[in-house]
Amino acid sequence: MGQPPLEIAVGCGPITWNQFRRQDEAAWPEDRVLAEIAAAGYAGAPAGPRGDRSAAETAALYARHGLRPAPGYFGAAFWAAGERPAILEGARRHAAFARELGCTELYVAPQGFDYVTRRGLTRRQTAGHVAPEDALTDEEYRRFADALNEVSALTLREGVRSCFHNHVGTPIETREEIDRLLALVDPALVFLGPDTGHLAWAGADVLAFCHVYAPRIKTLHLKDIAAPVARQGRDAEWEYGEFTRAGVFTELGEGSVDFPALLDLLRGAGFSGWAIVETDVTQRPTALESATVSREYLRSIGL
Q: Which residues, other chains included, contact 64 with Cβ-Cβ below 8 Å and sequence gap of 6+?
């Protein structure tokens, strides 16, 4: 007998449309983006506070397109001294909004492309080829962990789990950096929302990472990476933008991430939740084509 189907809702992040917005902002109202996400076959899209729009208005907007609100994203410089009050206020706003939408997870991620390392380089410049001396200091790790624990306790009081999200080009990029941070936080408070593509780009073994941390993964971003481009950029020490212009991001199934094995792993771990498809920068002529290619690939492997 076959295995039971995964209880996974497949959403699509609107980030792929940003490159087309930059070319013609007026041509890409939110309604059009949501309509294309729905047309590509997704169940939902990430939602978070936006201007003065209420959660009810957001839910109604998504419903008009047959979409459900999926977990949103909250980024902050969690390690920065003096930032705690603003971070907590931002987390409180995002958590309350998520609760009103019925979302039980929130991605929490580091900012920090402009964080200056001990080599005098920014993390944007060291993306994909991080050296040990590019890491946060011991004190900054402690402040990061303390802030993340406090944020996560706050969001849990709203019924929303904070899920740490890794990102190339920030001070928590490599497997070693992620492991170190997670060893400092309370696992009863801080859950995970990993990005498969950013793990692979940073040189991590995606399956090994997800195997170790499977019980804490409550949502995730499904993203694929062109390994030859990642290797080329690492060897040439490109900065973040050079990777993206060279095509480091690719549609699902066209890169190095083993999604069938990942889905088997998640199934075995009893995962249930949102999986958000993203291709940050596509080489396809339209975002709709990119999103459709990835959705059709997931269907081909049973999701």
A: none
Model confidence at 193: pLDDT above 50: yes
Closest of 37, 3, 6 to residue 290, by C-alpha: 37
Token representation of residue 203: 């040189």
Q: What Cα–Cα distance (Å) separates residue 249 from each residue in 6, 16, 195, 205, 279?
A: 26, 10, 12, 17, 6
Quick check: helix, strand or coil at residue 179? helix
* SS3 state at 53: strand
Q: What's the whole-number average pLDDT of the chain?
A: 96
For CA atoms 247, 249, 254, 255, the dihedral sign is positive
**Are 217 and 269 spatial neighbours (Cβ–Cβ below 8 Å)?**
yes
Query: Nearest Cα to 252, choosing from 274, 225, 284?
Result: 225
**Residue 279, SS3 per DSSP:** coil
Task: Tell me the pTM.
Answer: 0.95
Please, what are the domains in the chain? 7-300 (3.20.20.150)
State which amino acid sits at residue 89. E
Tell me, what's the pLDDT at 7? 86
For 85-105, what is each residue's pLDDT tens digit?
999 999 999 999 999 999 999
Grade residue 6 by pLDDT with cuts at 50, 70 and 90. Answer: low
Report the C-alpha gap between 101 and 59 in whole angstroms.
7
Q: Give the strand pairing for 190-192 and 249-250.
A: unpaired
